[in-house]
Design brief:
This protein has 208 residues and is mostly beta strands. The chain has a single domain, classed as Mog1/PsbP, alpha/beta/alpha sandwich (Protein Transport Mog1p, Chain A). The protein is 14% helix and 43% strand. A 7-stranded antiparallel beta sheet has the order 5-6-7-11-10-9-8, sandwiched between helices. Strand 10 and strand 11 form a beta hairpin. The longest helix has 14 residues. The radius of gyration is 16 Å and the shape is globular. Bound molecules: zinc ion. Zinc ion (ZN) binds next to loops. The site of zinc ion has 7 residues, from loops.
Amino acid sequence: MELKTGYFRNNALSARSLIVVVALVGAVTVGDLWLHRGSPPLGYARYTGYGFTIDYSQRMTVGESDLGGYGPPTDSAGIVQWRRQDTELEQFGVIWMRPEGLSTNVDKTPAGALDQLFGYIVMGGTMIGVSGGLETMTKDGHEGVHRRFTVEESGFSIPGIIGAWYCEESGKYLMLYLIHVPDVTRPEVVSQELESIWLGYLDVMTCH
Ligand SMILES: [Zn+2]
């Protein structure tokens, strides 16, 4: 079964272009990336690729790229992002990197992979801030960390949350982030559901 999806180019997390309403550029069929193993819940689709599987609402559009936003993802590194926006904006994404792709000046740990990702985001021109410290987590038996961050856009601080862990089975650092704006006409209203929505995606993601 092939699903038509919107496709958007992006810069790293690409929060800038996404919080500002953007027209989706073109539409491509990514049927070869969709493998329906078992069945996602009604109204949901399942994405499988690059060492992970995740279910998402069919109301969301999906876009894939490398971490610079210049080309297609590779097995070594990349990002897939999902997004929907009406009065509410919800955007989440999965990022992966192999240990050999980590720069020598970051630790080969989930925290180091996050540092490298934040470096890419800043290089992509998006202003981000971090609030609070790293907190530990586990995902499918893997030790990891998560933290809150903000995307600074048009004078607003849009809060987000991101977690990172290392999956020994797939040999990859995996990261899952979420940005949620309950009312895009009032971006100063901070989401009270950020963590619970993020935990929901963490729950429906499998990495090995
Ligand atoms: Zn795993």
